Amino acid sequence: MESLKLGSLEVWPPVVLAPMAGITNAPFRTLCREQGGGLFVCEMITTRALVERNAKTLKMIRFDPSERPRSIQLYGVDPVTVGRAVRMIAEEDLADHVDLNFGCPVPKVTRRGGGSALPYKRNLLRAILREAVRNAGTLPVTMKMRKGIDDDHLTYLDAGRIAVEEGVAAVALHGRTAVQHYGGTADWQAIARLKEAVTDIPVLGNGDIWSAADALRMMAETGCDGVVVGRGCLGRPWLFRDLAAACEGGEERVRPLLGEVAATMDRHATLLAECFGSEQHAVADFRKHVGWYLKGFTVGADLRRRLATSETLAGLREGLAELDPVQPWPDGADAPRGKTHPRDRVHLPVGWLDDPYDLAVPGAEAELDTSGG
User: Fold this and answer.
1) Residues 64 and 32: beta-carbon distance below 8 Å
2) In whole angstroms, what is the distance from residue 288 CA to residue 139 CA?
3) Taking Cα atoms as reference points, which of 69, 75, 58, 81 lies closest to residue 139?
4) Average pLDDT over residues 193-208
5) Which residue from 242, 279, 291, 364 has the highest number of Cβ atoms inside 10 Å of its Cβ?
6) How many CB atoms are located within 10 Å of the residue 69 CB?
7) What predicted TM-score, i.e. pTM, was given to this entire model?
8) Does 369 have pLDDT greater than 70?
9) Where are the beta strands (DSSP E) in the chain?
């Protein structure tokens, strides 16, 4: 297994933490990064918010001094605005790597022509990639995408070809269409087909990696050059230690006792409080993580409820102290987590599917003025 080469950057192991809104903030990236190497991407940043120097957005792209390489994912639909955002990152040394989001299936993004809807417009995609690469200087620019809007409107092979032609350093494919959202099973054969078609730059695979064994199997079955891990690490930052060990050929896997999980939960909430500067905000933000950390463990409903509704760090710690510290890692915990249901349809701008080569830039309202997805 080789290192992942993104321009001048060399990433080992070839593992990427997928940007997830409200999840991959600095505290969570710290927890994951401490487990093993890789590339750890911050939450999605909106290009408009960045160039307008939105205070919330600027705070989201602050990195710990020890965090290298620093990775930012951008969302945008206007080539000019995307170019300005990338140039700002390069000139002000805000990051070492820029990823472009063409995979988000959330309706508020796709209905404006962004995310996983955008690659359908081949010429618009090309214009955005060209401006991003042209303004990046020495920074590598990569892109993450889905197979397409639905099975009747697949775009990933065209998008991969365009990416190579425009100087993109790597492409990552989530093996689902936008309409699948996170439901069903990821199509790893699509990743294999993209790898066969795109030979000049690395191809990364994403979708249904719940364990280190899944990552190794994806790489073996598809020939991809690395993996992107999203929902599989929710409540399990130590998955990155498993991935590092697996890439080194080791068989040891982390199976923490419930007491060790509780200690990680405490540290996670504490890091959030330090990051946000507000204990109340931090504990409220942490609530969504409780179910993921405790997945599969035997924990009473009342205690789960109290942990998930804590309002202070002290209250959270009181609940964590009641967990059975020697309860072993449960069987079947390496299972799907997070959202899994498909959508009935993809919300798109009126007439979006009429002409796949239309270069018209979506309206200003598509340039979201807030970051984080």
Assistant:
1) no
2) 34
3) 69
4) 97
5) 242
6) 17
7) 0.94
8) no
9) 4-6, 9-11, 15-17, 39-46, 71-75, 97-102, 141-146, 170-174, 203-206, 226-229
Per-residue pLDDT tens digits for 206-239: 999 999 999 999 999 999 999 999 999 999 999 9
| Spatial separation of the C-alpha atoms in residues 323 and 321, rounded to whole Å | 6
Q: What is the pLDDT of residues 324-349, one digit of tens each?
A: 999 999 987 887 877 777 888 999 99
Exactly one of 32, 42, 104, 233 is catalytic; name it. 104
Query: Alpha-carbon distance 337 to 106, whole Å?
Result: 18
Read off the tokens for 341: 């249901």
Contacts of 326 (CB under 8 A, 6+ apart): 257, 258, 259
Q: What is the pLDDT of residue 344?
A: 86
Amino acid at 67: E
Asked whether the predicted pLDDT for residue 135 surpasses 80, the reply is: yes
Q: Which residues of 333-343 are buried (b: 16+ CB within 10 A; e: fewer)?
A: bbeebeeeeeb
Cα–Cα dist 187/175, whole Å: 5
* Cα 114 off chain centre by: 16
Residue type, 337: R
